[in-house]
Amino acid sequence: MRIYKDRFLRALANRAKCPYYVVDERICDYLLHTGAICDEYSKGQKIKNNIAENTPFLLVCGVFKEIGISKPTCEDFANLMRCTIMGDGICPECGGDCDVIDGEYTSHQIDRDIEPEITTKWELYECRDCGCKFYK
Ligand SMILES: [Zn+2]
User: Does residue 112 carry a pLDDT above 90?
Assistant: First the structure.
């Protein structure tokens, strides 16, 4: 799990005076570890929509201490809730795992005795989670 790098994550990173990737990692660790977000989180969704049922408000607020914001404001909380949770895969929309569904390749036969060298011209991926298709 990771958090999409957008203005909400950047706002939190600015307040925490920490690089965004550190804030990203600490938020994920904390929310998963405390069970505020369960292991089957919805990729590509806001944190607000991923908080597990009956999670105490104060437990979620503990994340601010983790990232170094000692006096969190309502603004900080709103920014946290608007952060988007991504999976660890390569999908640009949700971080889901993707399959190659099409592609074009060229092979160079340099020598008849060795395997031809295959280079990828392009590949089309499809996300297993959100179904989005993209070239890489
Ligand atoms: Zn996706």
Answer: no
